[in-house]
Amino acid sequence: QSKRKWFCVILARPYKSSQSGAAAGGGGSTWCGSVRGETKMSQQAANGDRCRAKVLTVETMNPNVKRVEYAVRGPIVQRAVQLEKELKQGAKKPFTEVIKANIGDAHAMGQKPITFFRQVLALCAYPALLEEEKFPEDAKQRARRILAACGGHSIGAYSASQGIECIRQDVSRYIEKRDGGIPSNPDNIYLSTGASDAIVTMLKLLVCGEGRQRTGVMISIPQYPLYSAALADLAAVQINYYLDEDKSWSLDVAELRRSLNAAREHCNPRVLCIINPGNPTGQVQSRQCIEDVIRFAKEERLFLMADEVYQDNVYAEGCKFHSFKKVLFEMGPEYSSTVEMASFHSTSKCFMGECGFRGGYMEVINMDPAVKAQLIKLVSVRLCPPVPGQALMDLVVNPPQPDEPSYTTFVKEKTAVLAALAEKASITEQAFNTMPGFTCNPVQGAMYTFPRISIPQKAIDKAKELGQVPDMFYCMKLLEEEGICLVPGSGFGQRDGTFHFRMTILPPTEKLKIVLQRIKDFHLRFTQEFS
Amino acid sequence: QSKRKWFCVILARPYKSSQSGAAAGGGGSTWCGSVRGETKMSQQAANGDRCRAKVLTVETMNPNVKRVEYAVRGPIVQRAVQLEKELKQGAKKPFTEVIKANIGDAHAMGQKPITFFRQVLALCAYPALLEEEKFPEDAKQRARRILAACGGHSIGAYSASQGIECIRQDVSRYIEKRDGGIPSNPDNIYLSTGASDAIVTMLKLLVCGEGRQRTGVMISIPQYPLYSAALADLAAVQINYYLDEDKSWSLDVAELRRSLNAAREHCNPRVLCIINPGNPTGQVQSRQCIEDVIRFAKEERLFLMADEVYQDNVYAEGCKFHSFKKVLFEMGPEYSSTVEMASFHSTSKCFMGECGFRGGYMEVINMDPAVKAQLIKLVSVRLCPPVPGQALMDLVVNPPQPDEPSYTTFVKEKTAVLAALAEKASITEQAFNTMPGFTCNPVQGAMYTFPRISIPQKAIDKAKELGQVPDMFYCMKLLEEEGICLVPGSGFGQRDGTFHFRMTILPPTEKLKIVLQRIKDFHLRFTQEFS
């Protein structure tokens, strides 16, 4: 502890450039600038050539990175973490706990892991446990199979860069079963470090060209900000198409076409990204809509990216998850042998919610074999996805079967999680729709609600005065006053003049009800304060 | 199985474009081209506008990705995997097993995991085991502490994007202890998905500018190809400086200066990458050399990237690992408060060799606070490094202490691994230096030997005829004839006209001796065949 203090003192002492000149030898250029706090470039530049700023400054860093934004973990979350620390240190706040409903982090919200999955993972981590009678045979069998596929029978060995072969085979079998027998080839499966990794890799492959020939990528608004962040990083052109809030956030091909035609004037649109079930908007696409989208992609020569990480999270009556792959193949060979597509899945969502393991996969369809070779080369640079995450992905796609000892518990746990989520989806929607100043579409699927909120003109003016967007001002105030951490709609994109926030439905039911009540109270106060 | 066959038949059938026109609706553009096999663009383009190639082809993909090369997992490794499959299917080969000495993958080569690490990981994965008496108390205590730092006490929750705070604190304490008390600030620690992830992220931050102002990055030749791959991907300028093979692959500042001055004519050199202990060359830098490098970096205004993932792997007498940070701080505040640096570490190497977990960290020194904010934003897009890998990193930096029950076993296991590696380093060097046509520097550290081999002119001509570089031709032939998988020196870079390969020293001693004997036999045969 005393060392830490000394460190701060040393670094806080302004560095005197006069000390350095001679000792620096040869080139003789020297630097100055405080290490903590702001770098005062302009002031120091005035001190003359021999006194220079740092090599790496915001002015001289990668400009694409500067353009990246990621609201789900943005300033409001940083403030939430700070508030938690203040509470721990005994600070008095109008709340005793910060509830982080900003991110789909199931376990952090109290959801329990699936027992079978964790048993197998423990067996893989410490194979001496395979001798223990306490573990069920099916868990041991799964662990033995995974270990047999690992170099030296250890999950500490690198795997093939594309992922462990028998796991890719299991993924293919899962997809075939899910899609009613439509074949899946393990060579088309790429395991990944969460779905995010695969999405970024796929976008990276797709981006090329300069100026008006630069690749354009169509994304929904509201969107999941991984997409806008990756596009900024890759200096690709983001093409917005708007979901229809008045029709339960549905996707309309006419809007896709409008958006595409507008974009063709300044870039080369080549990719269409879809999130189904929707994040942050929670809609579940109809089969008809998916067919329309596929037809559009074919006509307009767009590579389809289908983000299907919420495929088990469908709650609303009459809604069903249809995979893009299944619909594509049902449309006949004219489509199934031509439309290029990648579909993404993850261990982080659905009923398992195992975000920390960073497991995921993508399946590519109709990808040029020469491009596949380039893709394998690209993923090999990062060596391999985390093997525990690969193992977990295997368990998700190859869970206990009816004749196996862990089946009953597994089904019970899985069903309970999904039933609770369905209940919370309904509670949330109903609560918001009875609050004055709120309108909320049904949470048909996924893990979020994205209600529209009315913000009084005086609050909008106040936000402007503070240099904040109005819904950021709203959410920040909600955090400070109620300890509830949400993400402003502006972080996902929304039609001008409308305001929203994203909230997960993950808190335990009783806590969720409290959260909803507090939001209601806050909104009332907020509206009164600014009217 | 029958489904798979059907799939192949469908896809192998050439798609007839005449079927599609009408059904496609609206736009009316259609595609053609075989799905498997080569896309014959030019031929099809001749069929007219209505018959087009795929959206994503090698011609229309990201050109930076095309320039990426990664020899450690390149064509020779793909052939090795194929050979393994053929052997399994009963094919007759001049060998019964493929030995993959191409990559530093300790567990795959039979090295056993450290018991304590795996016990804690099993406890973290399946906390019900905390009730078991079989696990030692110190393992339980570590697991409880890690779980307490996880959201919902689960390693399935996302962590902070920079990594779990108490683990970053442990990393700082480890660095302080390693460096004789020089302070380390947990805010400067960023946990990562293996060291590769952190290295790529750091390079990404640093690259900017266009044309002659494009960022240049100095890397050693021979190098670890992650660097050249990342630079190609980022379209940065690679600046080569050569290690001195005649002086045990040492680094000479005069060569750094030569290389830098030459590069200044076509780019803006801003970064100097060092790997110590060296990969693939196994040298350990002297304290004096590190001081010279730091002085050079300061004079020339270069951001230092110190890849120190082999910090425990030092074998040669008289050699010692000196961290760049420690030397930097010992040079006084003129250096320690100005030179910008990042140092990288990993769970994959040293005595643990846990590659599959993808754990790692970087420590940044003197980084502009505004850039740090950008860095945190950037890593937040990928949400967080895998939590099991973070947990493992924690155990590496916070292993059992002398008063804890697991201490004796831990020290015994760690010492045994490092002693075996030291023995194998020596065996390897001695063996190569007694083989005609080989010269081999001492393997002072790391996990590889990079011997120089003589290749007869006739073999060079034969390789040219086949369109291969000569050492690739050599290594491919070695693989086919002896089942030994190495990486050609050309994958790492070498002086023109010299030839090398990289081989890990990881195989168990008895197997290593067989490998060395087979290489000797092969080399003799090869030399005779081509002379």
Q: Describe it for me?
A:
The structure is a homodimer of 531-residue chains. With 531 residues, chain A is of the alpha/beta class. The first copy, chain A, has 4 domains: 2-61, no CATH class; 66-109 and 411-529, Aspartate Aminotransferase, domain 1 (Alpha-Beta Complex); 113-157, Orthogonal Bundle (Helix Hairpins), CATH 1.10.287; 162-397, 3-Layer(aba) Sandwich (Aspartate Aminotransferase, domain 2). Helix content of chain A is 42%, strand content 12%. Chain A has 19 helices and 16 strands. Chain A has helices spanning 2-12, 41-45, 63-67, 75-88, 115-125, 137-148, 165-178, 194-206, 226-233, 253-263, 287-299, 324-330, 333-336, 369-380, 387-397, 407-434, 457-465, 470-482, 509-529, and strands spanning 30-31, 51-52, 99-100, 189-193, 215-221, 237-242, 268-275, 303-307, 341-346, 359-365, 438-439, 448-449, 452-453, 484-485, 487-488, 501-504. In chain A, the strands form 5 sheets. A 7-stranded mixed β-sheet of chain A has the order 4-10-9-8-7-5-6, with helices on both faces. Chain A has a 3-stranded antiparallel β-sheet with strand order 12-16-15. Chain A has a two-stranded parallel sheet with strand order 1-2. The radius of gyration of chain A is 26 Å and the shape is globular. The interface between A and B is large, with 135 and 135 residues.
